């Protein structure tokens, strides 16, 4: 059964198609595009050529959806961005789908959501899309998807490349974040369970990086706790916090196995760049003997839990629009005040040590000509303002990306691009 939230933004025809992810679909009576996953009732994932045909059909069949190429993988496959809704809408939501190539459920949920939003004609959808632009990278790792590998064709984990930007995939996403300035960045993944301590249908996690503005951090947690998890639970799924093992009897946390504040992970990079972020992880492992015996049933549950969580995201975008805009706009402007510490380590559940804290950050970093030549493209992709001269460049902290700059250039930052020279007074 589809959730009540999703049926608010779908036509009857589209609702029937999307509901096929949970129950066996009926044959479509119109020309609405369908994924290979839907056509097979979850027996197989949508293939590469099917995905491209599906996106082309959506682009041609809907006047509210457009598709552009934002990059090319090492093996020559397109990296694409789908835009749905009003370009000048006050709120922008970016979906990054399946950065890990062997985690397909998020990609399937993104594809059907693109279709559903592109073809729905009801008032609720029109209202949503008049105020919110939905941006979707439907396949963030095409080479890894074809090879069924976590990393890309160079075996690089793209979700550990959002500072260095060594991969074509991460570079394309950074350019989208810079140019589109999304208010919410929603990152879809899957995980392997460890029963009985770590086996929910769905886990999520907000930016833990301490450089996330307090308003952005608060709204990210509201997205998780008041919208995504309740939406999943309303559809019969269990939900919890990613990376935290819990006691099966008391529910008390007993061990953290993932989910720190390192800045190179997308949800943390999102927070440092003044956007709300949320990581979503659906459970790969079968939940029941029935799912064990029928992989299609397991696959449908995996995609279904992602769709339920997406329903919560869309509700959040509608109901919290004003709060989202205040949080992200204030965070961007606060950087120009050039006040407050910057953290080179720690997380919201792991206080930074004095050695990890720039209590009185420099006013900027000086790069010599060789350093600047080596990193200027990455700084530009991050949207960092630089002031070049004959000797190299000066990178001021007084800018919207204030708390990102030291993570990129401070010699003590774990993943810095280069060791800039801190300048105490400007």
Automatic annotation (TrEMBL):
This is M14 family metallocarboxypeptidase. Residues 1-28 form the signal peptide. It comes from Streptomyces albipurpureus. InterPro entries: Peptidase_M14, TAT_signal. Pfam families: Peptidase_M14 (PF00246). Gene3D superfamilies: Zn peptidases. Transmembrane segments: none annotated. Keywords: Hydrolase, Metalloprotease, Protease, Signal, Zinc. Residues 44-310 form the Peptidase M14 domain. Its cofactor is Zn(2+).
